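Project standup — Tuesday

K.O.: blocked on the structure for the chain from last sprint. Re-posting the sequence here as requested.
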Amino acid sequence: MKQRLLATAKKLFVIPVGFLLWSAQGLADSAYRLNLETAVVGVTSTKNDRISERHQIKFKSGAVSSTGRVDLEIDLRTTETNIPIRNERMQQHLFAQSPLASVSAQLSPEAFANARAGMAISGPVVVTLVANGVTQELSMEMALERDAMGGLIVSGKTEVDVSKLGYGAGIETLRNLAGLLSISTLVPVDFVLPFDD
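H.V.: unblocked you, prediction finished:
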């Protein structure tokens, strides 16, 4: 009976202690939090082969770990094109089934350690994008610097072929609804992401 009570006591002690250690590690590992108020992704759409328009998308969450691991969640429902009917059509025909996208990357340990305020360090980074249930790896040039308050600023640009993410049919629907000759599936993407310490 005594041994059984001791075993039960150990279980009751180990579970909460293990949970606390796990939680503390999770908090410690999120060294920087994305500033959701100011962080945006810029995307450029091109219609009829010559007319380009820039839109913005906001984030749901984002963090950089103490080792330079970046994890972001993009809320595609926040896509702002400055034309309400176009916003509605994109949400209906592109993002209704899968409204969130995730992005992950590993920053260079050297760049992460040596970043200074006012001096950007750049280098190639492989980014994993998951959108519409499809995973795509992108190689891009990304810059990293610290701000005056000790936070991080991560910036970069790339081009995404959204047809490879399964958006081709939806874009064709948008083209028909708008009466356009074409909408390119090659989408330039740019971002400047501030992370608070």
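K.O.: great, moving the ticket to review. The helical segments are 2-29, 84-95, 109-114, 168-178. Confidence is low (pLDDT under 50) at residues 1-28.
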